[in-house]
Amino acid sequence: MTFVHHATLIALGMVVGSCVGSFLNVCVYRVPRGRSVLNPPSSCPCCGSSIRARDNVPVLGWIFLGGTCRDCGGRISIRYPLIELATGLLFATVYLAHLAAETGDMLERCGPWLVGFRVVVEPLLILTPIAAVWMRAEARAIAG
């Protein structure tokens, strides 16, 4: 594979990982509060207004809004983009680790499905205990 192919897969890993990180944020906030992670759509923790789709882009939405709610101007924690960015980096790093560890062309030898499976499932396995720690910390913060 060429450099462009690898760079594209790394970028894709960042995007997919950031989206997973966005969902992880939803879980960290809602699970300790006993709320559904599927409904309702994301909302401002300050005023409760729904977050528009254009503002709900991982990392970039927070940056473009300056870490504030579009409706009430309330502060949105930096934890949200940090978790999204860290998760994106984790996905890209897992791909790079496989790339460095494999001899020859990993994609040719293993096939795209196995490579994709490894690059997606392994970060999720790493994220599970991290998510549990964040949820526990959030539950303690709620309890006061």
UniProtKB/TrEMBL annotation:
The lineage of its organism: Bacteria, Pseudomonadati, Planctomycetota, Planctomycetia, Isosphaerales. InterPro entries: Prepilin_pept_A24_N, Prepilin_peptidase/N-MTase. It comes from Paludisphaera borealis. The chain crosses the membrane at residues 6-28, 82-101, 113-135. Residues 15-96 form the Prepilin peptidase A24 N-terminal domain. This is Leader peptidase PppA. GO terms for biological process: signal peptide processing. One of its GO terms (molecular function) is aspartic-type endopeptidase activity. Keywords: Membrane, Transmembrane, Transmembrane helix. It comes from the Bacteria. PANTHER family: PREPILIN LEADER PEPTIDASE_N-METHYLTRANSFERASE-RELATED, TYPE 4 PREPILIN-LIKE PROTEINS LEADER PEPTIDE-PROCESSING ENZYME. Pfam families: A24_N_bact. GO terms for cellular component: plasma membrane.
